[in-house]
Amino acid sequence: MSLEKVSSNKAFGGQLVKYKFKSETLGGLNANFNLYLPPSATTSKVPILTYLSGLTCTEDNGAQKGGFLGPAAQEGIAILFPDTSPRGAGIEGEDDDWDFGTGAGFYLNATNPKFAKHYNMFTHVTVELPAVLAAAALPIDFTRQSIFGHSMGGHGALTLYLNSLYHGAKQYRSVSAFAPISNPINCPWGQKAFTGYLQGGIEEAKEKYDATELIKKLKSPVNILVDYGTADNFYIQGQLLPENFLKAARDAGYDEVQVRVRSQEGYDHSYYFVSSQLINSINSSLVLLQQISTFGADHIHFHSNFLKA
């Protein structure tokens, strides 16, 4: 699993580096990721924050347009940007729809034999990538990890974090999400993904891949921040369901200190609100996240509270 450096760019005094390697977890396919190392990484090991992108995205979206690198440099935090799915598996039907297959791995381990060899993003993110980075002797302190994400990536961040706590691993100290798919067993995106990737379908997903269901059975202390926009069309259409997650958290005894879910008036699902100016920048597949650029620094600072100790 040796790393090949693809490119490197200086940013905010640190380095944003793109790597690729042959991934055993993804069935021997090449996997790309970006890693931002802040300036302080030249003198000491730094904590790491993993960012999971949403449907149709790659490892580049958050790195290039999320507005995270400046705050991360200030706080002395590395950021890992994985891809959203395996690529080039050659499975029939994986490129037919934008919300399933390539670019839409849903951060699970597939059990449907058709997808099980390649679609294992859960293990890729939680086990394989940390192992690859550790083997490369990069200046990262893996005892201090947190995770965040957007939309499908927000779903991934929440479920990876909650699973870690539920099984006693405590891999991540905190989690945050922008417009996450919060209750995927009850929305069309999640139902499509789970019936396609999982042999047990919705019932299998309920046990491991739904944040609303997971927090109902959790007893551990949590550190969770969620933001969503009231003008988000996917929120309006019932794809995100953050209220379901909030109700489950409150019913489980988690107060607003441990679980904060904030509705942001007038914000949508897109990435393009930068420095209080609207930039009509359209991604090749989706308009990126207005909400992320506005509240991204807030999320970095939220995680810094837990990663510095």
TrEMBL record:
<protein>
    <recommendedName>
        <fullName>S-formylglutathione hydrolase</fullName>
        <ecNumber>3.1.2.12</ecNumber>
    </recommendedName>
</protein>
<dbReference type="InterPro" id="IPR000801">
    <property type="entry name" value="Esterase-like"/>
</dbReference>
<comment type="similarity">
    <text>Belongs to the esterase D family.</text>
</comment>
<keyword id="KW-0378">Hydrolase</keyword>
<keyword id="KW-0719">Serine esterase</keyword>
<dbReference type="InterPro" id="IPR014186">
    <property type="entry name" value="S-formylglutathione_hydrol"/>
</dbReference>
<keyword id="KW-0963">Cytoplasm</keyword>
<comment type="function">
    <text>Serine hydrolase involved in the detoxification of formaldehyde.</text>
</comment>
<dbReference type="Pfam" id="PF00756">
    <property type="entry name" value="Esterase"/>
</dbReference>
<dbReference type="InterPro" id="IPR029058">
    <property type="entry name" value="AB_hydrolase_fold"/>
</dbReference>
